Amino acid sequence: MAARILDGKKLAETVRAEVREGVTAFKAKYGRAPGLEVILVGDDPASQVYTRNKEKASNEVGMRGHLHVLPASTPEDDVLALVQRLNADEATDGILVQLPLPKSIREQRILDAVDPAKDVDGFHPINAGLLASGRPRLVPCTPLGCMRLLALAEVPLKGAHAVVVGRSNIVGKPVAQLLLAEHATVTIAHSRTKDLAALCREADVLVAAVGKAELVRGNFVKPGAVVIDVGINRVDAGNGKTKLVGDVAYAEVAEIASAITPVPGGVGPMTIAYLLQNTLTAAHARAAGST
Ligand SMILES: NC(=O)C1=CN([C@@H]2O[C@H](COP(=O)(O)OP(=O)(O)OC[C@H]3O[C@@H](n4cnc5c(N)ncnc54)[C@H](OP(=O)(O)O)[C@@H]3O)[C@@H](O)[C@H]2O)C=CC1
Ligand SMILES: Nc1nc(=O)c2c([nH]1)NC[C@@H]1CN(c3ccc(C(=O)N[C@@H](CCC(=O)O)C(=O)O)cc3)C=[N+]21
Ligand SMILES: [Mg+2]
Predict the structure, then answer these.
(1) Which atom of ligand 2 is nearest to the CA of 97?
(2) Is residue 93 annotated as a catalytic residue, yes or no?
(3) Residues ≥6 apart with Cβ < 8 Å to 52
């Protein structure tokens, strides 16, 4: 039986509509729009597209969105100074520093400098620590998007075995925390995991966040499992062009799973939608004076 396709593009429109209403209410109450500042260092073409999309998406829900593009040669201290200026700016509610940063810049030094109250990526150690302590504040966008897709699938998480492949601070670890908070039994796999296929076959919920095109094959999946594919991999399409594929061999796995997210049109659009939601959340917390 073919799996149900979890349409992230459509669900993201719903989330954006929710945010748009929230922004209208925020403006009525506080007389200003929530503000998102996106920082891009360097000229990676994919990052340019993504950051422009983030700026556009924030404007579409009525927020102030602004993109700062700095040359790859920008000194670390100058990037830091920009972050500090935005930290001090009352009209800025959210700050996102697009990753990866150029090699000459220490990523951690920049990310740690972002005011935790404006950290709409949820990457600051304060926010990561609060999530791990069961007191979530600003939570990473991609994991929030994954959880909303699982809610759409109506998969019972309590007592389910969730296997997360990947242990990054951006996706793997925080999505594992959110699944744990929903009372799933969570296993985190990574590059040193032995017999990944057999482990994944135990999963009722399988989240792939690896960055290896179509690593997860049909024989990794228990019949009826729900599969969330976070991977975004650009590969040769054979006709001189490239195409996007996930970390899951979609056609094969769709024959076995009960539900699956496509790439594109799955987790990606949800990430952007939750970035907007996090900006609204941060704006409310700041305006109410709780942070
Ligand atoms: N859709 C979206 O919104 C987003 C998509 N992405 C995409 O998701 C993917 C993962 O991103 P991210 O978490 O940042 O990536 P990272 O490279 O930071 O982490 C990848 C993880 O996968 C593990 N891994 C690598 N190879 C294997 C393997 N052969 N078997 C098992 N585990 C393996 C690594 O293990 P180890 O720790 O041992 O090295 C690591 O934990 C990428 O394709 C990225 O583009 C990322 C963010 C948002
Ligand atoms: N500070 C920071 N925060 C991030 O959240 C962050 C980051 N840096 N660096 C890069 C990764 C990757 N990421 C994506 C977001 C949306 C899509 C997305 O919208 N994808 C569309 C397709 C886009 C296309 O066609 O290229 C989709 O899957 O349908 C993809 C990838 C966020 N990241
Ligand atoms: Mg670097």
Answers:
(1) 1
(2) no
(3) 67
Nearest of 80, 228, 72 to residue 147 by alpha carbon: 228
CA angle 262, 250, 171 (to 5 degrees): 60
What is the mean predicted confidence (pLDDT) over 70-88?
98
**Is the CB of 140 within 6 Å of ligand 2?**
no
Is position 54 annotated as part of the catalytic site?
Answer: yes
The answer to ipTM > 0.95 is: yes
- CATH 3.40.50.720 placement within the chain: 141-268
pTM of the model: 0.98
Q: Give me the residue label for tokens 């891009």.
A: 40
Active-site choice (54, 119, 173, 204): 54
Q: Does domain 141-268 have CATH number 3.40.50.720?
A: yes
Q: List, in sequence order, every residue forming a beta bridge with 208; answer none if it has no partner.
A: 165, 229
| Structure token digits, residue 263 | 């790439």
Sign of the C-alpha dihedral computed for residues 75, 118, 228 and 196 taken in this order: positive
Q: Are strands 242-245 and 233-236 parallel, antiparallel or unpaired?
A: antiparallel
Quote the CA–CA distance of 67 and 65 in Å, as a whole number: 7
CATH 3.40.50.10860 placement within the chain: 32-115
Handedness of CA 52, 243, 271, 230 (dihedral sign): negative
pLDDT in tens, 166-192: 999 999 999 999 999 999 999 999 999
Residues 6+ apart with CB under 8 A from 99: 107, 170
Tokens for 92? 């800025």
| DSSP structure class, residue 54 | H
> What is the CATH T-level fold of the domain 32-115, as seen in this structure?
Rossmann fold (3.40.50)
- Give the pLDDT score at 290: 60
Residue 89 CA, ligand 1 centroid: distance in Å: 34
Q: What pLDDT score was predicted for residue 1?
A: 75
The structure tokens listed for 173 are 């670890």
